Amino acid sequence: MGVSRGGGGKKAIFGYGYTTVAVSITNLVNSTGAVSTDTTGVGTARYSLASASYGTDKAIFGYGIGTVNLSLTNLVSNVGVVSTDTTGVGTVRQALASASYGTDEAIFGYGSGPVSMTNLVSNVGVVSTDTTGVGTARSSLAAASYGTDKAIFGYGSTGSAVSLTNLVSNVGVVSTDTTGVGTARSSLAAANYGTDKAIFGYGNGPVSITNLVSNVGVVSTDTTGVGTARDQLAAASYSTDKAIFGYGFTGSLAATSITNLVSSVGVVGSNVTGVGTSRRFIAASSYGS
Questions:
Q1: 256 HSE (CA, 13 A, CB side)
Q2: Where do the domains of the chain lie?
Q3: Which of the residues 18, 197, 209, 270 has the least number of beta carbons within 10 Å of its own beta carbon?
Q4: Exposure b/e, 198-214, CB count within 10 A at least 16 = b
Q5: Pairing state of beta strands 11-18 and 22-29?
Q6: Which residue pairs from 112-118 have beta carbons closer than 8 angstroms and sit at least 24 positions apart in sequence?
């Protein structure tokens, strides 16, 4: 799901998700990658949403499904406080992805339908109306920032899993499809690491493979995964150059709260005992300064 751009927040936040019902709880992540206990949620309980950083030190959760598909958003302050619901802009949908781009903006894209439309987010957290989509319509994909000011959408499902990607320029323009690299999959997560690179990880199967993304948006072949294979998880950057994968579904009819830290050179660490309510279909982003 969505993440911050390189050099962004030193902290991260996991939010919302599904247990046996939609929830709105959040868990903050400090600058060393330690996850906090549950914080009572603010806003409409929902899952299959997306999140990204904006404005250099803030974050936004958007869209998802509660009892129906939604387009509402919740802003996150630079100290990790989640705001009440903001009336949504754009087509209601779930199973979308988001990332930051430029110096301080964000983008929501794709989602259930499937669709390929996008919605830009300004540096004060205002979501724009729909932009006609570019590339293959799909859902259950992931996105992250890379380079110093760009983003990438990758993988997902058109009805079957795909591995194609779409790059996003520093002004939020989405490119046409790039032939995918690595195992086709959906319900994965992505995050920025190392200040200017990105990582896609995990996904349906479930699997624990990862694919690194260079600072020019080139996706690498599969790297044998570390940690519990799972899907329906989230990822975000923290500490300016590291990342964290967390939560998800193991395929054994059980959600989890385990996390895996990613080093500044893209190496995924072994499982860290989870903190907070186990859940899936969650979103995450960096925030803070």
A1: 24
A2: 11-287
A3: 270
A4: bbbbbbbbbbbbbbbbe
A5: antiparallel
A6: 112/48, 112/69, 112/139, 113/137, 113/139, 114/138, 114/139, 114/156, 114/157, 114/158, 114/159, 115/91, 115/139, 117/90, 117/91, 118/172, 118/174
Six-digit token string for 40? 């009572």
By CB neighbour count within 10 A (0-12 exposed, 13-18 middle, 19+ buried), where does 58 fall?
Answer: buried
Q: What is the reported pTM?
A: 0.96
DSSP 166-220: EEE-TTSPBPPPB---S---SS-EEEEETTTEEEEEEETTTEEEEEEE-TTSPBP
**Tens digit of pLDDT for each residue in 223-268?**
988 899 999 999 999 999 999 999 999 988 789 999 999 999 999 9
3-class DSSP assignment, residue 280: strand
Closest CA to 55 of 107, 100, 109: 100
Closest CA to 220 of 140, 152, 137: 152
With 0-12 / 13-18 / 19 or more C-beta atoms within 10 angstroms meaning exposed / middle / buried, residue 176 is exposed
- What one-character-per-residue DSSP string does 58-88 give? EEEEEEEESSSEEEEEEEE-TTSPBPPPB--
The amino acid at residue 266 is G
